[in-house]
Amino acid sequence: MKARVHVMLKDGVLDPQGEAVRHALGHMGFGGVEAVRQGKVIELDLAATDKAAAEAEVKDMCEKLLANTVIEKYTIEIA
Amino acid sequence: MKAAVITFPGSNCDRDLSVAFARAGAEVVKVWHKETEIPAGVDVIGVPGGFSYGDYLRCGAIASRSPIGQAVADFAGRGGYVLGICNGFQVLTEMKLLPGALMRNAGLKFVSKPLSLRVTTTDSAFTSAYEAGQEIVIPVAHHDGNYQIDAEGLARLQGEDRVAFRYVENPNGSVDDIAGVLSENRRVLGMMPHPERVIENAQGGADGAALFRALTSVLESA
Fold first, then answer.
1. Dihedral (C-alpha) B5, B8, B11, B17: value to the nearest 10 degrees?
2. Which residues cross the membrane (chain B) (predicted)?
3. The model's pTM
4. pLDDT band at A8 (very low <50, low <70, confident <90, very high)
5. ipTM of this predicted structure
């Protein structure tokens, strides 16, 4: 079973890297980019076969390591 | 007074921090990251600067969950003194021993230069040898020193007099110009600037020496 975790800065937390990407896109002629937010994708191969159990386990991983919930939010996809 | 200095793979200020403690009169033991216990009789733990575990995932994240990380958290939980500098500050916020988080510098650049700090509180074992409002010059060298905390947490830090140092000129976008913060029991200090790099004039300044001197004298009389 595979899990994919998306980690993003919470809304309202300034993303300096996203801002730099937005500026660069503007310089390159891509007008109309109003905001860029940059995040991470983490893919996990899991031995678990039960979807609900896998999701609960990955949520625990997110809370304890994969995301810093002071500034980051996450979403989990299980496939 | 006995100080333990932790070395993670990628730490690069552990030697300087050991020297700073030793010059202030402490006996210093180095502790490798794979160890699971802090040696007996240790009064203070130093978590040094550097790039622990290559800053993978987030700065300080892997170190804070390492075997010795748990021992540091337990030591602090028992009321032990802990000083985290630069990457060490990041590690302590990742451990939740200190509130808030350290993000990429607002200007995106790595900032490496001496900076003026204002001593915001003298009410701690780390800052008692300074005068309130005193300006000191301590170097910074970091890419992720942008201290952020929610409004409620910030109000709490301010109300409880837990901001230890503020930048005179903010180099990284930190909220309220914060350069260092104390834990609720005032025994854990995290700061981005490097006091261990200015302990004698041959280093271009000695404003950091008073921090180690104060700590040694408080812990020796304890």
1. 0
2. none
3. 0.94
4. very high
5. 0.85
